[in-house]
Amino acid sequence: MIYNDQLYTSFIKQKIDALEKMTDQDNPYTRIVFSEKFYEARSWLKNEYQKLGLKVSTDEAGNLIGLLNSKTDTDKVVIIGSHIDTVPSGGRFDGIAGVVAALCVAKYINKNDINLPFNLAVYDYLGEELNDWGTSCIGSRGIAGVLNKEILSRKNKSGLVLKEEIDKIGGNSELLNKPLAVTKNILACLELHIEQGKVLEERKIDIGIVRSIPGISRFSINVKGQAGHSGTNLMNQRSDALVTASEIISFVNKLALKLSEKSNQHFVATIGKLNVYPNSAAIIPGLVEMTLDLRATSQIAREEFLNILEKEILLLNKKSSCKTDIKNIAFAPFVEMDKSLIYLFKNTADSLGLSNNIMESGAGHDTAQLSRVAPAGMIFIPCKNGFSHCPEEYAEASDISKGTAVLYKMVTNLADQSSNKT
After folding, report:
1. pLDDT tens, position by position, 320-369
2. What does the alpha-carbon distance between residue 313 and residue 167 come to, in Å, rounded to a whole number?
3. Of 294, 310, 332, which residue constitutes the final position of a domain?
């Protein structure tokens, strides 16, 4: 079986090690979308596609595609892949493992001269991670036709416009007002990813089969106070924005804990990004900008959280000299994976003798966006201590190889199904 073949474990490790080097040297592992290092990694990946005999192209949403054409005349396609961009100081495996696994599948099919009854496309989805434009999953949202004018017109702090960056990398933002034409021909979208949690590792399970991906909301929370001299302004005369912000952070954490226990479903809320102005030891903070990340499988729990939080902010505005506002900046709804693909993933893992478990995802993924327009499914493989979005993120090449075996077998199972239908 493929996962016992050291050639492929070695291939996976080699490609991950190569991508690892394409990082901001002072801040590993960092490869932000549209950065110099991201362009370098895209050039590397184009070369890898070409070495495998894949036809290289970039679609309207800026996704980099390596296409293995079927010897049969068909427009039907199965998509496999993930993303190569990272969060700041992220990891070597989040997204990258899925792209390398897809390369491995294409290599195996080419090496064995297997003719599929559909085209096989390896995708690097553009900008999966949250970025300076306040949105994630740029490329997969583009495929699904949900990059609206407001998102495309956003500027980052350097004044760069998102749609112009998409065009610069080879996309065509003028055509992103509806789902891309490829969606009419997609038979399945498959993604391998590290779990980013501890369930598989702790239970010694080889493969996690994803049942659903939570709804993800992001909000900007701005607290406006009054900057002033930290030595001359008495404590009872201050409008310290950071003090009020800290109350909100504590409230969010306690409320999320309460609702997660109450709903007994996946529910988490995080304020992980703060900008404090003017950010000086001798000046009282006059403005704090925060980003709230909210993830929930229960719409009822989500709405309850937001209603309580808004009431708390109104109360703070009445009793505090600081003024707080909250604004929704991004939303991706709760989605379930295609049931037939879940079933096929399970049968596939079973047939390979790999232990498996059907589970929920706590993180968002490109597959969630693709599920809007095509049958979509994904699998997890274990990662050490559940660490992710940090330099300590790690996954064994042998575990990625097991997931790759499942991915390859899924492609051949889909081929059998497609041939039987014809």
Report:
1. 999 999 999 888 889 999 999 999 999 999 999 999 999 999 999 999 99
2. 40
3. 332
Same domain for 181 and 80, yes or no, is: yes
Closest listed residue to residue 207, CA positions, set 2, 403, 9: 403
Domain boundary among 272, 300, 332: 332
Question: What CA–CA distance (Å, rounded) separates 20 from 92?
Answer: 6
The angle formed by the CA atoms of residues 298, 302 and 305, to the nearest 5 degrees, is 140
C-alpha dihedral, 246 to 248 to 254 to 257, nearest 10°: -120
Whether residue 240 is found in the same domain as residue 344: no
Instruction: Read off the amino acid at residue 225.
Output: G
Cα pseudo-dihedral 17, 22, 26, 28, rounded to 10 = -50
What percentage of the chain reaches a pLDDT higher than 70? 98
pLDDT tens-digit series, residues 84-126 = 999 999 989 999 999 999 999 999 998 889 999 999 999 999 9
Residues 39 and 166 in one domain: yes
Name the residue type at position 46. K
pTM (two decimals): 0.88
Residue 245 near residue 223 (C-beta atoms within 8 A)? yes
Return the structure tokens found at 195: 């779990």
Q: Provide the CA 31 distance to its chain's centre, in angstroms.
A: 14
> For residue 5, what pLDDT band results from cuts at 50, 70 and 90?
low
Rounded Cα distance, 331 and 312, in Å: 22
- Identity of the amino acid at 254: K
298: its two tokens: 């229960």
As given in the structure block, the two tokens for residue 203 are 């239970």
CATH of the domain at 256: 3.30.70.360
Report helix angle 397-421 to 6-20, nearest 10. Answer: 110
C-alpha–C-alpha distance, residues 171 and 130, integer Å: 19
Angle between helices 6-20 and 36-51 (to 10 degrees): 150
Q: What is the pLDDT of residue 1?
A: 47
Contact 405, 398 (CB under 8 A): no
Position 6 scores a pLDDT of: 62
Cα–Cα distance between 329 and 327 in angstroms, integer?
A: 6
**Torsion-angle region of 266 (φ positive above 0: left; ψ -120 to 50: alpha; else: beta):** beta
Asked if 102 and 400 touch (Cβ cutoff 8 Å), the reply is: no
- Residue 253 sits in which domain range? 215-332
Q: Which two tokens stand for residue 378?
A: 């994904």
Residue 113 structure tokens: 């001269």
User: In this structure, what token pair is assigned to residue 138?
Assistant: 């740029």
